[in-house]
Write a structure and sequence with these properties.
Helix content: 40-55%
Order of helices and strands: HHHHEEHEHEHEHEHEH
Shape: globular
Strand content: 15-25%
Oligomer: single chain
Strand order of the largest sheet: 1-7-6-2-5-3-4
Structural class: alpha/beta
């Protein structure tokens, strides 16, 4: 896409600014309600918060920003528990991830999100996983520490195998962490492909062009026959699916 096509119009800057303000106002408004729910339930309503309330916070943001967001389930029902993986190349992914409302899901997010006090408070209370992506060894250790908790509670987990949204190419190299986690949990991998996010928002903030974005939830991939010996081959097979969906030759 050329630079001229990437530039936002004045209208898109205004709409994006209003959408950003709305997102943080919704988050600020709903936080006390969420905290009360978590307190009176001793944390047992964490799944309800992630599945039902999070989508309520972000979905009003899309029409304000001029984004037509939809979810397409290619396999019918959403499979869980599972390890969900996504292509990550846009700040807009934050909104589309929360809008999915996946059952019993916990997100693996970058450590720096905790610098926002609301994200820190809500993330910690609902059991999200924060990792230092720039330190691979510590990131892997953090994931391993959470395997028992996730499996014991029958939770689903979502990760971005590319690590950061800043990576070479449309689909960056895949790290092993999410796939090792799926093997340790004995979970299938469910690929989710975000179509349109990268084209609508390429910056580090939530300024977006108007247009369509679609979350494609694909068939689960069984990991029962995965081993350390064939892991790299299996990872490349999964990545090739994303390259195909992104129409990268």
């Amino acid at each position: 896409m050329s630079d001229s096509k990437q530039r936002l119009t004045i209208t898109e800057y205004i709409r994006s600014s209003l959408a950003i303000v709305l997102f943080f106002l919704m988050l600020l408004f709903m936080t006390p309600f969420i905290l009360i729910l978590l307190f009176i339930s001793a944390g047992r309503l964490s799944n309800f918060v992630v599945e039902k309330i999070a989508p309520l916070i972000v979905k009003p943001v899309f029409p304000v920003a001029g984004i037509d967001f939809s979810i397409k389930k290619h396999s019918g029902n959403v499979h869980y528990p599972a390890v969900y993986i996504i292509n990550h190349s846009s700040t807009l992914d934050i909104l589309t991830i929360l809008a999915l409302g996946l059952p019993r899901v916990r997100f693996v997010a970058k450590w720096q999100l905790q610098y926002n006090p609301l994200f820190f408070l809500l993330g910690r209370l609902t059991g999200q996983v924060f990792i230092r992506r720039e330190k691979s060894d510590k990131a892997v250790q953090t994931l391993k520490k959470n395997v028992d908790r996730i499996k014991r509670r029958g939770l689903t987990v979502m990760l971005a195998p590319e690590g950061s949204r800043k990576h070479p190419g449309v689909i960056g190299p895949f790290k092993k962490g999410p796939f090792r986690m799926a093997m340790d949990l004995g979970y299938p991998i469910v690929p989710i492909y975000f179509e349109g996010n990268r084209e609508l928002s390429k910056g580090g903030f939530l300024f977006t062009k108007q247009g369509k974005a679609t979350a494609h939830i694909h068939d689960p991939i069984d990991t029962e026959d995965w081993t350390l010996e064939n892991l790299e081959e299996k990872i490349e097979e999964v990545r090739s699916l994303y390259l195909n969906w992104a129409d990268v030759n």
